[in-house]
Amino acid sequence: MSAVFKTFKPTGLQGQTAMARARVRMSEVTGLEINNAMDEIRLTQQGISVSVYESIKSLGASTAELGWIIKPRTLTHRKDKKESLTQEESGRWLRAAKVQALALEVFGDQDKAAIWLHKPRKQFDNQPASFLIQTEVGAQLVEDTLNQIDSGYFA
């Protein structure tokens, strides 16, 4: 019995890597220009606003799973004081948003992306990708795996 796997390839952005497509998607949902790694660095250094933080939900992330980025009480404080997130919090947000957008680009559907991100995987030592992205090394492993899937490697 053989399984047939379809790889989602968006029509308007053919030839671009999944990460380039993910940056386009992140730019659209945040309203910020995120075209390359230097844009990501500047964004992290400046700190993101609470409204930009909330935009990750449109990529499929839930409030419950974002508690590792910034604690709910701290988030409420930032909203009340109209403060931006710190560099560390902004970096964690960027890590989560990139993986969320990348999974969405690779699978072409929020439900499929969410299933992939939350299902424990052998290659991740039976941990879900959504747990691994809480560390920089884990996020890099998840990004590499998603890029391999997008390139046609089975993962």
SSE blueprint:
Blueprint lengths: L17 H13 L6 H10 L3 H5 L17 H10 L5 H21 L2 H9 L10 H4 L3 H15 L5
Tally of structural domains: 1
Report how far the terminal alpha carbons are from each other. 19 Å
Low-confidence stretches: 1-12
Radius of gyration: 16 Å
Task: Report the total helices.
Answer: 8
So what's the overall shape?
globular
Q: How much is the average pLDDT? A: 88
Sequence of secondary-structure elements: HHHHHHHH
Q: Strand tally, please?
A: 0
The helix content, as a percent range, equals 55-70%
Strand content: under 5%
Give a short account of the largest sheet: none
Structural class: mainly alpha
Question: Can you give a write-up of this model?
Answer:
This protein has one domain (18-57, 72-150). It is 56% helix and 0% strand. It has helices spanning 18-30, 37-46, 50-54, 72-81, 87-107, 110-118, 129-132, 136-150. The radius of gyration is 16 Å and the shape is globular.
